[in-house]
């Protein structure tokens, strides 16, 4: 049996086809009402689709850089706070050193204090900052930058000091005979053999596992800057040098002239370290400023891009809501017509 275009079946099929099209239009209109942008951007914009794709890619790129800059800023602030703490502690220690030059019982007190400060300094240098790794390890952020001086077994850093002292004076630091070391001999030792322990290659071999290359971060589309420091900086070497000479060269048993030589040398070295810590703070401060400025500029760019994207893809939410209402009315009418058509029967007219 063949149906014609005026049959009930043909009319019903045409209605169903029309209903499916309206339902798809309704789904698109509902999506546009919710997202405030075209349901099918490519279909709606045609040849201008490439423009909105480019804008969205650049928008995503700048957003990612800004998020990275937030992490970089946090790391820089943590580093700055640590440097400030180093400088403050070093300055306090200078006061203790100057007060200890009277000798006697104070020599043992300042030696014990130096040991405590050396341990604290190394612990702080080995501080990790979450997913960023160790703050002072340079690009080797997953490696602890400095060895612990008072660990057991004796680390290379402390053994190096002991070997240098024994070679220079023929006795160990704990030997009571250290009281026979003259001020001149101690001065020569501190300026040469001992100082060399904090220069390369001894420093990188016995003390530090940090990289001399600092971390670099892309803070904008065209700016790549250093955003960290490392344990190889001379400021940190000098702090370690000053704390170690007071803590582990037998200061409590030295003669008064030799003890004063150690104190004077430690005071001088710490003074230089404080100055260099200030230089590091200035360098990192410049980096902080550049990161903040770059993020601010990119935020302005993102605002402009967002406006451009909205002008291309944006849909009037109220217009979309009106279309939804109209399409739902059409669907309800189609359902009613379909029900009427399906109820038609020739038997009613016979």
CATH superfamily of the largest domain: f41 fragment of flagellin, N-terminal domain
Shape type: rod-shaped
Number of helices: 10
Q: Look at the structure and give the mean pLDDT.
A: 84
| Tally of structural domains | 2
- Percent helix, as a range, is 55-70%
Determine the structural class based on helices, strands and strand pairing. mainly alpha
Strand order, largest beta sheet: 1-2
Question: Under the CATH scheme, which architecture of the largest domain would be assigned?
Answer: Up-down Bundle
Low-confidence stretches: none
Written as H for each helix and E for each strand, in order along the chain, the element string is HHHHHHHEEHHH
